[in-house]
Amino acid sequence: MAKYMEMIRIRFLMMLAYRTNYYSGILIYSINIGAYYFLWSAIYGDKSSIQDLSIVQMTTYIAVSWMARAFYFNNIDREIALEIKEGKVAIEMIRPYNYLGMKMMQGLGEGVFRLLFFSVPGMVIVYFIFPIQFTTHPATWIYFLISILLSFIINTQINLLTGIATFFLFNNDGLIRAKRVVIDLFSGLILPISFFPVWAQGVMDYLPFKGISYISSMIFTEGFHGNEIFHGLLNQTLWALVLFIPIQLLWTTAKRQLIVQGG
Amino acid sequence: MSYLSIFFQYAGQYLKTRLTYRADMLVEIFSDLLFQAVNLIFILVVFGHTSLLSGWSKDEMVFIYGFFLVPFAIFGAFFNIWDFTDRYIVKGEMDRILTRPIHSLFQIILERMELESLFGVITGLGIMFYSGHQLGLSLHWYDPFVFVLLVAGGALVYAGIFVALASIGFWSDSKTDIMPMMYNIGNYGRYPVNIYNRIIRYVLTWILPFAFVGVYPSAYFLGRDEWYGYAFFTPVIGVIFFGLSVVFWNYGVTKYRGAGN
């Protein structure tokens, strides 16, 4: 366990060394939040609420889902793909740790860094520009923190799956890009799931993506009431557990038919 | 040597290299389509909850998005200069470019082209024809010519802004994130400008004129005569911005000092 903790720490310090790169990131996210803010204001027009969300809740939803994205988002699929292509994965495999576990910890180190140096200051800045409301219930904050941790796990698991797919596809830049687009839409980042037509919501109930953004953002904006919060967290937990199965299966198959190209 | 024949030589070579990895190219085109679909789905889903958005109907919004895709695809196919500083200045590739007797910017356009982006033109046209049909728009004999002119204007606006930003690389080769930022600002142009406040609208019209890529030229085809002035101004803005950026580029080239040995 200590070596995994160490990995989180090292990644964190690595990110800290390049922290200036993140100031512009906050600006880019704010630009995106701004675009959606104006769009949603126009959509609301003089309606006071759509799908039980007021315009202030909606603005908060957009802001928090972008800022939470900074936490759960990582490029480990790209990193794994690169290590497989360059043959480095062979060396990683003989090291005395679980390769996938280590990748996940690196992602977590990055995530914690971005949470502290990107999401939190970003949220404060956005708070001064757009009409956003923070909840004062401590319980909501705790649920939210649990929820984004689960978001991170689900998103990272999907990244691991995409990364491992390189073993079979050799070049999966296209898949990585497609995955990112699918997640942006189906996770509820650009549009709350409750806005979709009912049949589409039914489909998304059977997909893991809404656990990445929608559930945590709805908890934060208090768009979920009572049992909905627990249902949401339960849904996330189940997906986080279920997704380990395909990862293990793919990983075992991949190791068996591994061809190291160079290295 | 004619620039046109050089262009076709490069395009021919490019197609050969791309067709070697057909599967990869297909996945790339597919993920482009997916990306375009996401924005379309956003518009469609949103209009499940409202009938008008600042006076624009669903089909009009879809039409504007369809139009936007066409100049954006042309820009994406020929102006991949977002990593110009890294690729040409820091790595010293610019030295190679400058020893050849063709305009430096033209060479970079040729080297970095990504012709598969042009599929966006087809998607855009498809979306426009579909929503135009829904709106009952009719085509005049001169509309295709106006379309070409307005699309060219829109693509030149994008090109002008990004060429100008790339030129900054001649003075400073430090890493900036101004290019990705500009791509995100460009997204504002996909939607009607009257949903934004006065300041942003002004910026999108006169300073970073992304509104001339989407809503202004579309207004002509949608018959929104209150915006006609802006619509017909599109090619002018395009030529002005692109012209200025080329002047800026040429001036930058004279300041280029190479990167080390």
TrEMBL record, chain A:
Keywords: Membrane, Transmembrane, Transmembrane helix. The keyword Membrane applies. The keyword Transmembrane helix applies. The chain crosses the membrane at residues 21-43, 55-72, 112-130, 142-169, 181-200, 229-251. It holds the Pfam family ABC2_membrane_6. PANTHER family: SLR1174 PROTEIN (PTHR36832:SF1), SLR1174 PROTEIN-RELATED (PTHR36832). This is ABC-2 family transporter protein. It comes from Fictibacillus fluitans.
From TrEMBL, chain B:
It comes from the Bacteria. It holds the Pfam family ABC2_membrane_6. The chain crosses the membrane at residues 25-50, 62-82, 115-133, 145-171, 199-221, 227-251. Keywords: Membrane, Transmembrane, Transmembrane helix. PANTHER family: INTEGRAL MEMBRANE TRANSPORT PROTEIN (PTHR36833:SF1), SLR0610 PROTEIN-RELATED (PTHR36833). This is ABC-2 family transporter protein.
